Amino acid sequence: MASSPRTGRSSPALFAVVIGAVLILGVIAMVVLGFDPLRVSQGVISSFFPPQAVTDRGEHIRQLYDLVFGIAVVIFFVVEGLIIWTVVRYRRKPGDDELPPQTHGNAVAEVVWTVVPTLIVAVLFVASWLTLNTVDAASAQPQMKVRATAAQFLWSFQYLPNDYDPVTNKDAKPLLEITEPEGPDGGLTLPVGRTIHLYLQSPDVIHAFYVPQFLFKRDVVPGRINSFEFTIKDEDAGGTFHGQCAELCGEGHNKMHFDVHALAGADFDTWLQQKIAAANASPSPPPPQPSGSAGSPPPGASAPPAAAPLSLVAKDIAFDTAALTAPANTPFQIQFDNQDASIPHDVAIHEGSQSGAEVFKGDVVTGPAQKTYDVPPLKAGSYAFFCTIHPNMAGTLTVQ
Amino acid sequence: MATTALHPAARTYRSTLYEWVTTTDHKKIGVMYLINSFIFFFIGGLLALGVRSELAQPGLQFVTDQVYNELFTMHATFMIFLFIIPILAGFGNFIVPLHIGAPDVAFPRINALSLWLLPMAGLLLLLSFFTGQAPAAGWTSYSPLAQDRPLGSVGPGQDLWIVAVVLVGTSSILGAVNFLVTIFKMRAPGMTLFRMPIMVWTVLVTSVLGLLATPVLTSALIMLFIDRNFGGAFFDPRNGGDAILYQNVFWFYSHPAVYIMVLPAMGIISEVLPVFSRKPLFGYKAFVFATAAIGALGFSVWAHHMFTTGAVYLPFFSLMTFLIAVPTGVKMFNWIFTMWRGQLVLSTPLLFALGFLSMFLIGGINGAFSAAVPVDFALHDTYWVVAHLHYVLFGGSVFGVMAGLYYWFPKMTGRMLSEGLGKIQFVLMFIGFNLTFFPMHQLGLAGMPRRIADYSSTAGWNDLNLLATIGGFTIAASMIPLLWNIFVSLRSGKPAGDDPWEGNTLEWATTSPPPPYNFDHLPEIRSERPLFDQRHGHAAPAATAVIPQSASTSH
Prior knowledge:
The complex is a heterodimer.
Chain A lengths: L11 H21 L4 H10 L9 H34 L17 H29 L8 E8 L2 E7 L15 E3 L9 E4 L3 E7 L5 E5 L4 E5 L5 E6 L8 E6 L11 E7 L1 H17 L28 E5 L8 E4 L5 E7 L5 E2 L2 E4 L6 E4 L3 E2 L2 E7 L5 E6 L7 E6 L1
Parallel strand pairs in A: 1-5, 4-10, 11-13, 12-20
Antiparallel strand pairs in A: 1-2, 2-3, 5-8, 6-7, 6-9, 9-10, 13-18, 14-17, 15-16, 15-19, 19-20
Chain B lengths: L16 H6 L3 H30 L9 H35 L8 H20 L28 H30 L12 H32 L13 H35 L6 H14 L16 H10 L1 H15 L8 H24 L1 H7 L3 H31 L5 H27 L16 H31 L37 H6 L13 H5 L2
Helix pairs in contact in B: 2-3, 2-4, 2-15, 3-4, 3-5, 3-7, 3-13, 4-5, 5-6, 6-7, 6-8, 7-11, 7-13, 8-10, 10-11, 11-13, 11-14, 13-14, 14-15
């Protein structure tokens, strides 16, 4: 080969000098550009670790991660270093005309690099099995039972009575349902320091319940009730943790966010009582359970006013009409009938198109259910109405 | 037997379009496999650029959620089913008969069928873009999302996807049978199993995997097709089916498929490293056993893609997944010690082989994180997994493919590729690859799920995503020197001669490109390096060697 003998006698030392120079230049560049090298390197190091766990199980997972990471780093540097060293050291140099020794192998070496990795993975397996037993453990009598329902494309949360059981008592009426997945009034509010058993339910496709700060996710599988247990650590009371669907579930997958709020035990009890009282006091009936087919509630107390309300039906992820007409400058009503079982819909009205300014947004209704929306007076013009969860469900509202 | 491949019309290598379309010559078919695969590599690459462009910044700038789902679904589909699997089959097609001293594969016409099924499948997939809704349920097409239902996969796009993947599977099955019969029945005299090049061994194990696993995928897809079109209820819980069953059946193929996608690349590396180290492969038999072990273990780890479903016996699949690291580690050390105390010639094929070693190492290490089940609970379906699979399939397989391309291009065409352009390509691709995929580890740890079109600007993922996008375009840029290199070299490249690299294996004993019947005469085969033996006087000169029956009768 012609190209081989032309390189000079550059040694591994030169290679080390080049690497060193690049590193030093990098640090100088950071300083010049106004970065603090210490903080940057701390940031880089912490980016190799998951976020601080806020649950007891998350802590165990984090310890296992640290073990795996430690072993991984050692293996990486040893083997990668061996590769680089070999390449630099054994390049063909001018005068290398004789063949190198034609070694065909070494049985001892083969045994060593079979046995040593086997031992390493045995250690890793045992460690992860032990951790798994802790993480997947379920207590006979958890202190709280909660259910997360993932429907395309909205999370809702049900606080279950203690006698709920996914097999023997699956239709137990929830104490409270939260249909807004995010924000201070929405999401999953939980007490710290209590064992929480979270059931997962989906009426449509597979989703996944994922909270990065739990270091945990579990799939929400239709036709199957998955569950897991955890306790939020006391010091995380007052925190809000962001969660997101982690299993591709369709067009709105990336919009399936939710919040988890952690409250101190006493605060949580107050919160729960207030919420239950508020739900019972509200004139309109509570939203039906996703799994229940126990009769859809009647339209409710809101009787139709003088002006005839508009009718809008949602069925099979579509509205029954693409055009509505309403009078200008007077309040009007939309009688919304969601006939899609277990699927949440709502109606929003925006000026002009969906990207226009919002003038009305109705509550989410999980079908089968009906709701009457009171829409404020609108100026004459053309508006877009659509379901914010399924923006393909859309039409034009003409106000005249 | 092989006379169909030696039709008198096949006088010359370069011939008419008709000749190429109707050929049954394994070398032309192999080259067409490569061309077809590269076309879909570039299509898949463009889709990937679409994905990276959208993710460069928070907010939806270029596509809608639906189109984004189509982008990554089709990216993966093209890359896996129409690039990596076929291109490695293409290398196998070109090189296996040459490696074992055979005039062609056992069933040349079936071989042509295997090839031509692929562009058909690719066209069906491309057609799905014009059906209103291209497949958007991910390359895994999990049920019920892939069912025909509102907010699922409505319309013919998903059906076209199913048919296309079944066609690719059929091509794989036929190819596997062909390789197995060829390897077992058509080896030249003296070419015992343990003298076969490692490349042939990897194709052998890959073929066993393909033959056993692909029918399972085919059955899963046909059931999904029945669910969608004829009211079946295999995988749809609404009708009493089981969503998890689909995953079990799908991954029973698709995990072995990962080895189908990487073993032949390991074979390529195992050919390149000894030649450019001027040493034999260290631990040949250990290598064979490790390859077989990976193939066998590959059937017992499918459910490690399903740790978070809550429907898997976790410790078993965790153990098997960890164990598969052992034979892989054996290979890694054998490769390194092949170079140890050698005389490394840093030509482009070796550079890409070194890229394979160093990147596949990362792909193996970050895979071990997911084998630890509780850690997988944190990392599954995040960008960590995207990083892992690309370190295996790009850092591993694609670097292996490039090594193979630079190594065998002279044999395929009779022309050398330019070393300078090759090195530019390597440097760009290596940097771009790491820029793109390394930050994804950190994104995954920070909690970014895969398959999302958008993310909050306050999530802290902006910088790393921008970096990954810059890397993606760097990879794209590295394709320019490659294409230019091929174009220039085909027109005016340096003539290769029979053996430009001082090769070890039989393909270098014939002309470049080889005649349709492959060999005028074969050197004596007394080891896995017959040409080395001949060059260094350990074997009889070629002229006196035995000429295999099938080759001599067809003159």
